[in-house]
């Protein structure tokens, strides 16, 4: 894509730069996963704290800030396109996020970007913004609510508990981009969670690269919250979050054995009976090449045990098909494993080489048409399983958090549905429902992904 030279783009003369009282406007582009979204929220909070105003359009902004994703080649292409658009429409562009870890990939194409910083480098981002557009003289600090500025709707919020990852899955470059695991002290996380709840958040979505490894780097050190010591440990943090009286949903849980300990908390209703646990494959030989825990027979036994302890548990997972060297037999093993595991929600990716990932050295690439054909077979098989599991809910009563209202039907999610990635519950109601409200809904119908029902109890 040819990018117009910013020096020749047609822009109005910038009078704000010379007026110390004028409001500085920043147009913000947030790309990538929920973890990147949390970074965006932190940066936006800082911008607002310093008096910058956010605008929806690049034209007329004093600066465009692009938070990039660099995980897959397709995500990198999307990030580069966003940078190109920002340069074309505005000309003053600062880049941050995962792609910032390989700045040459950006500068090669766009030598005119003003600055490039890596993920979580909040200070460097703000320095770059200050250099490009100095803050207005009187920062509107009181404009910032104490819980920060959130890009998610007010009734749910992502809560990031750690950064980086100690695992070395062969298809992934996250540890290279984000480094080894660095956990936040438990009290720090809990205080942020309390502020969010005080501001009206009804659902906390716990995220990190590897949620179950939380606190390993801190040697599970304790910190003081509500006059008591809380260990920086997956189980202890989950239990403490469960005291806040809101929905707590656990994402990106790596299948370590100690994950089993958290299932009783789900059975007791202290955290949501929901585990987002990427298994990635069902064949032990493929998992070994992926450098992930491989005893899938044992994993099936563990899943069965989780369901005994907490029959309502929802299991969401992701898988990769067409990993280098994947044979037809290994793929069949995956399908068999899927039948046995009978997971509720599943995402599937066709393997895509990521520059710098060790899996590229494995050779033996699976041809694209084979990947596509396996992906379709996988999806067909899983769709039938998911639909069957969803159907079992018809006739039950479910708690549903309302995300959207309008007309006669509101849209919400049950405890089994995370925002953005899972299905929805469509709710008919005699009285108007409010966004963020948790309604009891009698489920009347299920389709492939979603449930339909009527609000009851009033
Ligand atoms: S656990 Fe996740 S983030 Fe860590 S190396 Fe594996 S895929 Fe990457």
UniProtKB/TrEMBL annotation:
Main localization (coarse): cytoplasm
Annotated Radical SAM core domain residues: 151-388
A Pfam family this chain is assigned to: TRAM_2
SUPFAM superfamilies associated with the record: Radical SAM enzymes
EC number: 2.8.4.4
Sample GO molecular function, one term: protein methylthiotransferase activity
Biological process annotations from GO: tRNA modification
Cofactor(s), names only, from the UniProt record: [4Fe-4S] cluster
Localisation per UniProt entry: Cytoplasm
Domain TRAM: 391-457
CDD domains, alphabetized: Radical_SAM
Binding site for [4Fe-4S] cluster 2: 165, 169, 172
GO cellular component: a single term: ribosome
Protein residues bound to [4Fe-4S] cluster 1: 33, 69, 98
Domain of life of the organism encoding this protein: Bacteria
InterPro entries, per database record: Elp3/MiaA/NifB-like_rSAM, Methylthiotransferase, Methylthiotransferase_CS, Methylthiotransferase_N, Methylthiotransferase_N_sf, NA-bd_OB-fold, Ribosomal_uS12_MeSTrfase_RimO, rSAM
Known role: Catalyzes the methylthiolation of an aspartic acid residue of ribosomal protein uS12.
Protein name as catalogued: Ribosomal protein uS12 methylthiotransferase RimO
Source organism: Rhodoplanes roseus
